[in-house]
Design goal:
Elements: H1 14-30, H2 44-55, H3 66-74, H4 79-94, H5 101-112, H6 145-149, H7 151-166, H8 170-178, H9 180-188, H10 198-206, H11 217-224, H12 239-257, E1 281-282, H13 292-295, E2 301-302, E3 319-324, H14 330-343, E4 347-352, H15 359-362, E5 364-365, E6 381-382, H16 384-394, E7 400-405, H17 412-416, E8 442-443, E9 450-451, E10 457-464, H18 475-480, E11 482-485, E12 497-498, E13 501-502, H19 503-517, H20 535-553, H21 558-566, E14 575-580, H22 582-585, H23 590-593, E15 598-603, H24 612-617, H25 621-637
Parallel strand pairs: 3-10, 3-11, 4-7, 7-10
Antiparallel strand pairs: 1-2, 5-6, 8-9, 12-13, 14-15
């Protein structure tokens, strides 16, 4: 036994569960014997029938519950294969507490009774059975509602994995069962392992000292991302590496605490959740009361210990775009949501659109990839959108979110391609559904594969309304997304004053002038003036952010940028002006350039001369008027200094 004690469990009877799992490992997986007293059934020929009639015959789209479909699928199988299936079902149900012990026994007994001709009677004295007594079947932790809902997929994966294991040589099988990390890598390598909770359940019951009693993918991810454990995201490349990281983190906690009694649902409570009131649900698996034929007509209500049975998860997908000018909190709103969902263990992806971003980048396309013999591969490479759709289908009990920054900087219709149709929430499909035959699925351009967007995938994006490098956003996208405006709000600025300068009034005045001269989509966001505690910092922000942004908005007319900032055409401390006289610059070019002088206007670099009063003049008209009067009197006494030109459009 290792020094780590992941097997610690605050629940009673965990020792009986681990003893049953150890007996199962020795009898079934090593010796190939039946744990229920039948003949030697853990052999390749029995798996052949289960692969053919159960795994390859899912009966998707057929009416009926799980047990009705099982009867159809297992009917052609010989008794040995059905007995094997019952024992596979036993190990699948061993760890989760989603069902009470009595219900677990009834389910296994019902499968056992499907054999024709009947096999030896099911062990009647279950109280003396190390595998079937109440303590052994009490469970170790909840697998969540998705475990029951997608139990048929868990069983498919279990059959495939055990068939592969039992086809190995005895020595290879023994090596895998003696090395927890090698076993985990082997179990996770199957394509069918994606999204399956049986990986977590089996690893824990067979190796309780190394693997946590966490049977939910979302909770595993949530634990690994907890700052309490300090696990580096770069060290978590797949499920086995994450389990090893959790193992190492537990060892550190045990040393710090001086105790092996650590449970992430209780101490430290990084996975603790507030329980909601339970309501009885109709179980999808009808249990036998009299005989197998009668049970197909009955429905049994069940309130399990920790879950609400197999009620279907109703997902309400979100398609949202946060839009507004720069600095209004769009990215902050997205980042806040991203952090919340990431810390909850949910899967997220982040992409940023740009003018050259394409369908090939986003969905799928031919990209350089190593192939056979050192040649480049000729298969299309999956993009982030296809990958997250497939992951959402693989993990149907969890929510997944794709975050898109600056969605309008690319050609949206070109990037989404044929998928623009199935983005609508009304055209989303159930996660985990078989895509072939779905009306709301599309065939991809390069691979020819079909793809449908599941309801457990949210798409959250941001859009900068001041970006003049793009055209108006596609109307098709407007119909498919909720648009959430993030306007500039000067009242949100904190602190609101710096010295004698009122930052709220300052921003409001500048934005009003911008709206008059351009539109409200080009406002300056309040975030730019947040967290300013000194006049020096205010000068820096205006010099490096506010004035450059205005120069970009009015990129062909510096005078208009100055007027938008100051509200006047006169010389301003925030800009440097110098006269350009044709006579001193050109020779004999009058007929080409004329005689008119021009004024060169550029942002001032001499921040030392900027004062609080200069900033006040940007929003306080009374201060501006008094200064203008003084300037006018000075001009009269000096014979009238030349004034800056006014733009004809103002």
């Amino acid at each position: 036994m290792s020094e780590n004690m992941s097997r610690y469990n605050p629940k009673q009877n965990s020792g009986a569960v681990f003893n049953a799992a150890e007996e199962f490992k020795n009898r079934a997986l090593i010796d190939c014997d039946s744990i229920f007293g039948f003949q030697k059934i853990w052999v390749p020929e029995n798996f052949t029938h289960l692969i053919k009639h159960y795994v390859n015959n899912p009966l998707e789209g057929e009416q009926g519950n799980l047990v009705a479909k099982l009867r159809q699928q297992l009917r052609p199988c010989p008794p040995g294969s059905i007995a094997l299936f019952a024992e596979i079902y036993w190990i699948l149900l061993l760890g989760p507490t989603n069902l009470r012990a009595e219900r677990k026994r009834e389910r296994i007994r019902h499968v056992w009774a499907m054999a024709s001709p009947p096999i030896s009677s099911f062990p009647p004295n279950f109280s003396n059975s190390v595998f079937l007594n109440d303590q052994a079947l009490s469970g170790l932790g909840s697998a969540g509602p998705g475990f029951n809902l997608y139990q048929w997929k868990e069983l498919q994966f279990a059959v495939i994995a055990f068939q592969d294991l039992m086809s190995q040589t005895p020595d290879t099988r023994k090596q895998l069962l003696d090395d927890p990390w090698a076993f985990a890598r082997w179990l996770d390598h199957f394509q069918e392992a994606d999204g399956r909770q049986f990986y977590h359940c089996l690893c824990h019951v067979l190796f309780p000292d190394e693997f946590e009693r966490i049977f939910s993918e979302k909770d595993k991810a949530r634990a690994a991302r907890s700052p309490v454990l300090g696990i580096s995201p770069s060290s978590v490349t797949d499920r086995p590496s994450r389990d090893q990281a959790l193992f190492a983190a537990r060892q550190v906690l045990e040393q710090e605490k001086g105790s092996l009694e650590i449970d992430f649902y209780e101490d430290p409570p990084i996975l603790l959740r507030t329980k909601t009131p339970k309501t009885a649900k109709i179980d999808e698996f009808f249990m036998p009361v009299i005989d197998p034929e009668t049970i197909l007509q009955q429905m049994v209500l069940e309130g399990d210990d920790e879950t609400d049975g197999a009620a279907e998860i109703e997902w309400e997908p979100l398609n949202q775009i946060y839009f507004g000018p720069p600095g209004t909190g769009k990215t902050h709103a997205m980042e806040k949501l991203r952090v919340e969902r990431y810390s909850e263990g949910e899967h997220i992806e982040f992409v940023s659109f740009h003018p050259s971003y394409s369908y090939e980048d986003f969905v799928e396309g031919f990209r350089p990839e190593p192939g056979k013999g050192g040649q480049l591969g000729d298969r299309p490479v999956k993009g982030p959108f296809r990958l997250i759709c497939e992951r959402a289908h693989a993990y149907p009990e969890d929510r997944h979110t794709l975050f898109i920054d600056e969605i309008n900087r690319a050609n949206v219709a070109k990037v989404f391609g044929e998928l623009i149709t199935v983005l609508e929430t009304s055209k989303r499909c159930a996660p985990g559904a078989k895509v072939e035959g779905l009306p709301a699925s599309v065939r991809l351009q390069y691979s020819g594969d079909k793809l449908a967007v599941p309801r457990n995938l949210d798409i959250i994006a941001s859009m900068n309304t001041a970006d003049r490098s793009v055209t108006a956003i596609d109307h098709a996208l407007r119909r498919r997304f909720e648009f959430i405006e993030c306007p500039a709000d000067p009242e949100l600025i904190e602190p609101s004053k710096v010295g004698t300068v009122d930052l709220s009034k300052l921003l409001a005045a500048i934005n009003d002038r911008i709206e008059f001269m351009l539109d409200r989509d080009h406002a300056i966001g309040h975030a730019i003036l947040m967290g300013i505690h000194s006049v020096e910092k205010l000068k820096s922000v205006f010099s490096t952010q506010v004035i450059p942004l205005l120069m970009e908005y009015f990129f062909e007319d510096s005078l208009r940028a100055k007027i938008a900032l100051t509200g006047k055409a006169r010389v301003s401390v925030f800009f440097e002006e110098r006269r350009l006289k044709p006579a001193s610059l050109f020779e004999n070019c009058d007929e080409f350039i004329g005689h008119e002088e021009r004024v060169s206007i550029s942002p001032s670099k001499n921040l030392d001369v900027w004062t609080e009063f200069d900033f006040q003049q940007l929003y306080d008209r009374r201060a501006t008027i008094s200064v203008d009067v003084v300037a006018a009197e000075s001009d009269d006494s000096e014979g009238g200094a030349p004034q800056a030109e006014t733009s004809p459009g103002i």
